Amino acid sequence: MNVILLKSAIGSKGGLEKITKRFIAALIQKGDSVTLLTTTSSKKPLPDLHPQLKVVVLAHEGPFSFWNLFYFDYKVKQWLKKNPHEIVFGFDRNSWQTHIRAGNGCHAAYLKLRKESLLKRLIFKINPLHRTLLYLEKKGFEHPCLKILFTNSHLVKRQILQYYKVPPEKIEVLYNAVEWTDLQKPFDDTFKVRAEYRLKWGIPHDHFLLLFAGHGYKRKGLSLLIEALKSYPKVTLVVVGKDRSPPKISSQVRIFGPQESLIPFLQTADALCIPSLYDPFANVTLEALSMGLFICSSAFNGGSEILTPSTGVVIDDLFSLTSFCKALDITCANPKTPLSAASIRESVKGFDFAKQMQKMVSYAR
Predict the structure, then answer these.
(1) Which of 77, 97, 322, 340 is most buried by a 10 A CB count?
(2) Which domains does the chain have, with CATH numbers?
(3) What pTM was computed for the model?
């Protein structure tokens, strides 16, 4: 088949880019002819891609995000008019494609869930970036030529059905994937290096080590977590990620900033907390489970849907301190042990990239 993929800024280092590259490899392995329509910039040059992939750079990104979105969409439509295609598979927000993977979730729902002042909500209504995202989202989701809309959680499926006129039968829920097999060696080494890292970082031996990982601390709910941890003096929180405005921290919080690899932190922590205000499916959910960590998640993380009582807990009400602490009580009662870690890891064996990509390729045919 002749497959056209739409993904701007493929040079970014995110979960969406990782899935796009894996999907490209899976299609080519099936014998399909694959062309990627993309953009480039000085900050996001093209990475090494599959040697059999045809790459067409339609635009060089400028300083205005909303214009980059509009211009890429315009150039895509112009290119498609002149080139034959059977499937147009979008990974971003574009106004027309036959298949969409809505990995970024539903922007209309995200804006509604944000806890902002009245002034900020009014500013959002006229912000050109938000207006552009909502325009392209509506056009793409409701286009009559759309055949399949993949979401990475039932959370996102419900939101799309709430905000847009999309026939439910067009939406397929396909959860995110993880390098489950690749993580076997780091997992096997976990209990060999844990003590070394704890000593290096100055973590008291009798403290429960809780990990927070993500960029954009406000959307990820870090301040809510820090507030709740005031009741847990023997919990040390390690924060990996970045934000323009770091929250107020206490002595029990260690900020490590962005890291090239999350592996040492996944090896050392007892559990991971994902108190997100909105996450279609936080990739770190699967990464942590694959490394044997218990998960404490908000219900606004689509990844919480794969948790069971033995692998994690969902905070009933993220904005209730009582509810948050109830979930933390359960979390702290589940420290990492060789037995528990092995069981948690085994629970997500079916989410290995190879299996998930096979499913997406079969749906897309």
Answers:
(1) 97
(2) 2-178+353-363 (3.40.50.2000), 184-347 (3.40.50.2000)
(3) 0.93
